[in-house]
Design a protein that fits this description.
Elements lengths: L3 H30 L5 H17 L3 E10 L5 H4 L8 E7 L2 E2 L4 E3 L2 E5 L3 E10 L2 H20 L20 E8 L5 H10 L6 E4 L4 E4 L8 H10 L5 H15 L2 E4 L2 E4 L2 H12 L6 E2 L2 H31 L6 H9 L5 H17 L6
Parallel strand pairs: 1-5, 3-12, 6-7, 7-8
Antiparallel strand pairs: 1-2, 2-6, 4-5, 8-9, 10-11
Helix pairs in contact: 1-2, 1-7, 6-7, 9-11
């Protein structure tokens, strides 16, 4: 084993070197993606590239993508499709099926296949934070409405992990903001977010509700179980102190240094690796919707035929039907009730094409 001081020095050098590597990589991605005309999109692309470098094997990182829950509550929860657009999200690569819907200029993915979402802004302000928390609250609403649990806990192999989509807040820098006010807002809304990062100042906060927030005590228990001498245990526990020893407490939240490193670390230990993630339920809803739509079309055809038969108009169009009903020549409900029994009989005999 290394001498006590030697191990501490090596661990410190290793951590500082890795931190510097992460900072340089982030700045490189920022520089490569910089566009003065589309700063928001450039920042999202930079963060997407950064995450892809470290999680490409298990996640498909997307930018400006909306989410669809299993029962399509997203249509009601979000006021419009653009409000649903997530800055950066990570899809499990082992989703089955791995699908990306395209509708107009919008892209959509099943929420059941999303590992984590990130709202990212260039500057941390109270207004930006509150706006981002509102977005994350809507994601939580979708999960609550569908009793969301897309990750089987038995597959984690990592102790406690989140059994839902992890929710992250990322800011490139903080120019002039009251951090006590920021941490107060975060402290009041811990059920909405999991990870908080300010890149340039290298500050990181994990929600106290995050299961992996117990990593320090779990690490200590692991070291205790290794059967080491007291001196050897102290050497290993120095690693924990290197990270945990630079915490600042504000509004009952721990503000830690080593932000980029801890952000990657917490993402890694908070989300389990699972054999496959089922994303078929939105497809089932679409199949059911299409079948219902076809039934409605068939029923309207039968309705039009009945109107045509009674009025002796061959193949009446919608304008003809509306005019006849408007003129009082036919009662729509009476015609519908007349069509319905025969239509249901045909449906039961599978004589209706859907």
């Amino acid at each position: 084993m290394f001498a006590d001081d030697e191990l501490s020095e090596r661990l410190s050098e290793f951590l500082e070197g890795f931190q510097e590597q992460l900072r340089l990589e982030w700045r490189l991605f920022r520089k490569q993606s910089f566009n003065a005309n589309t700063k928001g999109a450039a920042l999202e692309e930079a963060f997407s590239g950064f995450l892809t470098k470290y999680f490409d094997g298990i996640y498909d990182i997307q930018t400006r993508t909306a989410v669809i829950d299993d029962l399509f509550y997203c249509v009601d929860v979000f006021d419009n499709p653009q409000q649903n657009e997530i800055d950066v999200l990570a899809m499990f690569k082992n989703s089955k099926p791995s699908i990306l819907f395209e509708a107009g200029e919008m892209s959509w993915v099943p929420l059941s296949g999303v590992a984590f979402v990130c709202e990212i802004k260039s500057n941390l302000t109270v207004q930006n934070l509150e706006s981002d928390l509102e977005k994350l609250e809507k994601i939580k609403q979708l999960e609550d409405k569908t009793s969301f649990n897309h990750i089987p806990m038995t597959f984690s192999g990592q102790g406690e992990v989140v059994d839902r989509t992890a929710r992250c807040l990322v800011y490139d820098e903080k120019k002039s903001v009251d951090m006590d006010r920021i941490t107060s807002i975060l402290s009041e809304n811990t059920e909405l977010w999991d990870l908080f990062l300010i890149v340039e100042s290298n500050e990181f906060i994990s929600s106290p509700n995050l299961p992996s927030g117990t990593w320090a005590s779990e690490y200590e228990e692991t070291v205790e179980a290794m059967g080491l001498t007291e001196e050897e245990k102290n050497e290993f526990l120095k690693w924990k102190d290197l990270i945990q020893g630079r915490e600042n407490i504000s509004n009952d939240l721990l503000i830690q240094d080593d932000g980029l490193f801890l952000f990657l670390y917490y993402l890694s230990i908070s989300i389990p690796f699972v054999p496959a993630v089922d994303t078929t339920k939105p497809l089932q809803m679409l199949v059911g919707y299409r079948a219902t739509e076809k039934l409605e079309d068939q029923f309207l055809i039968e309705f039009a035929r009945e109107i045509g038969r009674r009025s002796e108009i061959e193949n009446p169009d919608i304008d003809d039907i509306e005019q006849l009903i408007s003129d009082g020549d036919y009662d729509a409900n009476e015609v519908l009730n007349g069509v319905k029994p025969a239509f249901l009989d045909r449906l039961e005999s599978e004589d209706v094409d859907i």
